[in-house]
Structures are given as structure tokens and as C-alpha cells.
Design goal:
By secondary structure, the chain is an alpha+beta fold. The protein has eight helices and 22 strands. Strands 1-2-13-12-11-10-9-6-5-3-4 form an eleven-stranded antiparallel sheet. The protein starts with 9 loop residues before the first strand and ends in a 19-residue tail after the last strand. Pfam families: Disintegrin, Reprolysin.
């Protein structure tokens, strides 16, 4: 496609009339404007349509593909783009670290044999076309404001661009007359939707006073990096939404995590995706309209997977090394042919975690689900649960929302798992801002890291950190991430508590406290504490509180 000048490949959109005037002078943009009118109508104004220019030392071009000649992707590159308002900036990007070291990532999905039995398949093949970086308005001068870029080049250039406190989105547009690697793009300001963070839910976590038990701390190793290894499940409804294409599912998960890295800038936290589990055939545990019930079911499923991983023979394996190319024309998974997939099969079926890569340890389980919840929340995470088997979160995915919105939900969930809510907002900071994690929130996360509860995340070759990964469920004490913890003998007195996960049913009115009996509040007037002596007064339950907050006075007979 000929590019006459820089001005001829840009169209600023402030309104329909303005676009129509510019359309007459920019015929090269007629096709994408007409083909994408519904998308453009939904974007915040002002936006700009343009063709990104890839600035490479050996081969600069109008095109967004970063694929090399050997099937790999460039380690780094630069793009020149236009921002709304006429700014011409350079995106200086490098390979994102969200997939960790080579071969440390796996995809798990399922197939059926002729007898109808379901088998899990593992693959460590993926197209790593995800990048992060910075924005430079003048390549010869350092930027004086905070910038961040999180994009991918799998199918055009898409992702987010942050300059100071303004975040932009960039997306490729459909264009019937354009080469596949030279699509027009739109850059628009992100207008973030509010996220409910304090809705009343049937949960019973005790945040105040709950601290990790005393463990030996790591020796001072200087500046530490906390690597959070994520295992993400994408449910069957979302698989159907993504046209039953495995590559689209993996691309979506990778995009969400890549954009979530923006929220943790300035904190020594590194997000890594070690496993994606795609439910391409059916649902593997019940998804309830209650987000808390779904979280409880995720905890049971996760515990069962751990037991299977520990008991299975690692020599029995079945894996599929699929070439997961992000081609828009790739057929649905159910119609893939042998020509598109390279695989090897063992003589016997595998357990779902027998692959060495799938058996590798992860730190947080995340469920992406399209289930419509009755609760007024879009996510739920177990607070203070990092380095325990209860480090879980459920994210409600609405595909009509942007990937950026889902990444913000994921960022909040991870922050709460790390212990965000256990620390009050520092007096010198504000914990409310346009950013999903304010400076005050980041300070609270740093305090949580300093407490030692996340020491299992530290990568060090000199000390064993396995001792910092604890499971106290069943010891009879209320520990981090637990709603309840009955001993084996006390299970009957707490019927709402799952003794394997230490999470409570949604029907529980309470799980602990002097006025809590068998998961229900004691009646008003029930004796909570008898008088210690003649100078003391007994305390009675109020019928609405698990602990007596004020002394209920009684008549005292005079001598």
C-alpha cells in the first residue's frame, strides 16, 4: 500500500462530521472506517486512526509483524505511532517476561478417544509475541514523565500505552484491501469503569490481627524480586465465545496478564503465566451463580489437582506439542487436522498433571469465567492467602469490556491475595486514584511483602524457600486465608466448614466468635461470658454479632 506522506496515514476522530470531512481527503482510510464504524462509535473521543511505522535498523516498514525468519519473534523493536491530539511518539518495546524461562509454560486442554473417554493434552508451544516497554517522544532525550507500554503483535499491534496519568488503548482495524501485516490502527483514550471493591458478600475472613506464623526469614540478599507464577483456567463458556479456537483463548489470557503488569510498576513483583487450562469440552467443576460458591468449588478442584499431581507416576505421560499459531484463519479446535498439529502419544492415558511442565509448582490459581453472578462484584480473591493452598481468585470476564478492564480486575485480585487489605492506608498516601492500585495501595503491598507472608515467591539459588509455603488447614487455629478451621474432632460442631479447604459455605451466618454456634448466630440474650466475680457483670449475645461489643447489663440483687 503506498504511503504518500505521514499526514496521509492519520485521521483524528472527534465526531462523525469531522471524520466525514477527513474521509474525503484520506481515501486510503475509507475501507477501515466503513468496516469498523460500530467499533469506532463505541470508543472514547478523541481517537486517531493511523498506520504504525516499525523502526528497525535493517528493515524499517509500515507493518506490525515482529515474526522473524525462523518462527521466533524479535527480542525488541520500535514503533512510531500518533496519539490523539497530534503527538508523534515512539514505542520502545522488548519481549515481555510473562512466560518466564523457555519451556516453563504449558497449555492444558482436553480431547476424547473413540470410546468417549476424556484425555488431557499438554503443550508448551506458543507464539510469544507479547511486549512491554516505554514511550519516547524524542529518541535522543530521556522522558521526564512515567510511561509504560504493554502490547502484543500477534494480530496487529494491540494493548495499552501509558503517559503520566493518561492511558491509551491501541487496536488493529479490519481492512479488506490492506495486507495482513499492514492494517490501520486506532489509538483512543481508555475510560475506565468503576470496580466494586467493598461489596457485602457472604465471606468470613478475619483480616485484622491475622498474620503469618513465625517462620525463619530469608537472609538479606539485597533487593528481592517476588515472582508470582499464575495458573489460569478459562471456562467452557469463554471457549465458545472465542469461536472454540484455542489460540484465541491463549492470546486473551496472555494479553490480560501482560497488561496487568502495568499495575505493579514500582513494586518488586513479577507476573508469570506458567499454565493455561482451557475447558474446551465441558465444565470440570460446578460454576454457581454465587461467586463465593464458585470460589469454594475452585478450592476443592485445586486441592484435588494437587493430590493427583502428587500421586501420579510421572513416567506415564501423554502430551501434544501443538504449534499454536495466532492465525485468524485457523479453524476451530474441533476441526484441526493432523497437518496443523504435531503431536506424540504414549501408549496409556495420562493424569491431568503428569506432564513435567504441568506438574511444576504455581503460586495462584485464577478462574476466568463468563458465569453471570448474582453478586455485585466482578472478582473475588482469598485475602492474605499467598504461599498457602488457598491463594485463589475468580474473575468474571465480560468480553464486551476491554482486555484492560479484565487486567484491572486481575491486578486487584492478586493484590488482595498478597495481603493488601490487611494493612491500613498509610497516612502520607491516598488509596483512591484513577489507577487501580494507588500509591497508597502499593505501599500497603510493600508492607505485606515485608511481613514475610510472601517469602515463598522469592527466587534464590542459595536458600530453600519451600519452608515458606505453608498449609495450616486443620490445626484448629484460624490462619491466613481461612474462614474456619475445625479440628477433626470438631467437624460436627462446624457443619458449614470444609475441613480440606478451611472455607465456609455461603449459608453460614458466622464461623467464629463467642456468639457463633454451629455456623449460626446465638439468640439474643444467650449467655456469652459469665461473670468472673461479684464485681464483674456477665455478657450476653446480641443476636446480630459474633462477639459481644458492649456489656449487656443485668439486674444485680442487693445484699
Amino acid at each position: 500500500m503506498p504511503m504518500a506522506s505521514d499526514e496521509s496515514v492519520r485521521l483524528d476522530g472527534y465526531g462523525p462530521s469531522h471524520c466525514q470531512v477527513r474521509l474525503n481527503t484520506d481515501p486510503i482510510l475509507q475501507s477501515p472506517l466503513q468496516a469498523n464504524h460500530l467499533l469506532l462509535a463505541s470508543l472514547a473521543r478523541p481517537f486517531v486512526m493511523m498506520f504504525p511505522f516499525q523502526d528497525r535498523r535493517n528493515r524499517s516498514k509500515y507493518g506490525t509483524s515482529t515474526a522473524g525468519r525462523r518462527g521466533t519473534y524479535y527480542m525488541s523493536t520500535k514503533f512510531w505511532i500518533h496519539l490523539p491530539g497530534g503527538q508523534h511518539v515512539q514505542l520502545k518495546i522488548h519481549k515481555s517476561g510473562i512466560f518466564g524461562q523457555p519451556n516453563s509454560y504449558s497449555t492444558l486442554y482436553y480431547q476424547r478417544n473413540p470410546e468417549g473417554q476424556t484425555y488431557p493434552f499438554a503443550s508448551n508451544k506458543l507464539d510469544h509475541c507479547f511486549y512491554t516497554g516505554t514511550v519516547r517522544r524524542n529518541p535522543n532525550r530521556p522522558e521526564l514523565v512515567t510511561t509504560y507500554v504493554a502490547v502484543d503483535t500477534c494480530r496487529g499491534l494491540r494493548g495499552l500505552i501509558q503517559i503520566s496519568n493518561q492511558t491509551y488503548g491501541i487496536l488493529p482495524l479490519r481492512c479488506a484491501i490492506c495486507p495482513a501485516d499492514r492494517l490501520p490502527h486506532v489509538v483512543f483514550p481508555h475510560v475506565t469503569n468503576s470496580i466494586e471493591r467493598d461489596a457485602k458478600l457472604p465471606v468470613h475472613w478475619q483480616l485484622t490481627g491475622v498474620r503469618p506464623r513465625k517462620l525463619p526469614r530469608l537472609e538479606n540478599l539485597g533487593e528481592l524480586m517476588y515472582t508470582i507464577r499464575l495458573a489460569v483456567i478459562l471456562d467452557h463458556n469463554l471457549f465458545v465465545t472465542f469461536d472454540r479456537k484455542l489460540d484465541q483463548c491463549i492470546h486473551y489470557i496472555g494479553s490480560v496478564i501482560n497488561q496487568a503488569t502495568k499495575s505493579f510498576q514500582g513494586i518488586p513483583i513479577d507476573l508469570q503465566l506458567v499454565r493455561s487450562e482451557v475447558w474446551n469440552l465441558n465444565t470440570h467443576f460446578p460454576l454457581n451463580s454465587s461467586i463465593k460458591t464458585t470460589l469454594n468449588n475452585l478450592a476443592i478442584y485445586s486441592a484435588r489437582q494437587v493430590r493427583s499431581r502428587n500421586s501420579v507416576n510421572p513416567t506415564i505421560s501423554r502430551s501434544l506439542n501443538a504449534s499454536l499459531s495466532f492465525s485468524p484463519s485457523s479453524p476451530p479446535l474441533s476441526h484441526q487436522t493432523g497437518a496443523n498439529w504435531r503431536y506424540r502419544r504414549a501408549a496409556v492415558p495420562m493424569a491431568s498433571t503428569s506432564s513435567p511442565t504441568l506438574g511444576s509448582q504455581h503460586d495462584v490459581d485464577i478462574l476466568f469465567t463468563a458465569t453471570p453472578f448474582v453478586d455485585a462484584v466482578e472478582y473475588l480473591a482469598v485475602p492474605d492467602s499467598i504461599c498457602t493452598p488457598r491463594s485463589l481468585a475468580v474473575i468474571q470476564v465480560n468480553t464486551s469490556e476491554t482486555v484492560y478492564h479484565t487486567s484491572r480486575l486481575l491486578s486487584l485480585a492478586i493484590a488482595e491475595v498478597l495481603g493488601l487489605k490487611s494493612f491500613a492506608c498509610p497516612s502520607l498516601y491516598s488509596c483512591t486514584s484513577q489507577e487501580i492500585l494507588s500509591d497508597g495501595d502499593k505501599s500497603r503491598i510493600r508492607l505485606a511483602l515485608l511481613s514475610g507472608m510472601a517469602d515463598c515467591l522469592i527466587s534464590t539459588g542459595t536458600q530453600d524457600v519451600s519452608a515458606f509455603r505453608v498449609d495450616d488447614c486443620g490445626n484448629g487455629e484460624l490462619d491466613r486465608g481461612e474462614e474456619c478451621d475445625p479440628t477433626v474432632l470438631a467437624n460436627a460442631s462446624m457443619p458449614c466448614c470444609n475441613p480440606r479447604t478451611c472455607l465456609a459455605d455461603v449459608a453460614a451466618a458466622c464461623t467464629h466468635g463467642a456468639c457463633c454456634h454451629r455456623c449460626a448466630l446465638a439468640n439474643r440474650g444467650h449467655l456469652c461470658r459469665p461473670a468472673r466475680d461479684q464485681c464483674d457483670l456477665p455478657e450476653f449475645c446480641t443476636g446480630s454479632q459474633v462477639n459481644v461489643s458492649e456489656i449487656q447489663f443485668v439486674l444485680v440483687r442487693s445484699n
